[in-house]
Amino acid sequence: MKIREELGFTEILVDTAIEFIDLIRPEAQNLKQYLDCPNYKLIFRGQAESNWALIPSLFRNISKNILTTSYEGLCFKNWLQLKDFVKGCDLNAAIIPFDSYQFRNEFMKDFKGDVAFDSKCWPDPKLYELIAFAQHYGLPTEFLDWSWNPLVASYFAASQVVANKFLNGNMSIWVFDTEKQNLLNKFNQKNFEIIEVPKGFNQNISSQQGCFTLLRQNLVRGTTLTYEETPKRIRELKLLNELLGEKGINALLKISVPQIVAPEILNFCFAYSINAATIFRGVEGAAIYSQEVDRIQSYTELL
Question: What whole-number distance in Å separates Cα of residue 94 and Cα of residue 32?
Answer without folding.
Answer: 44
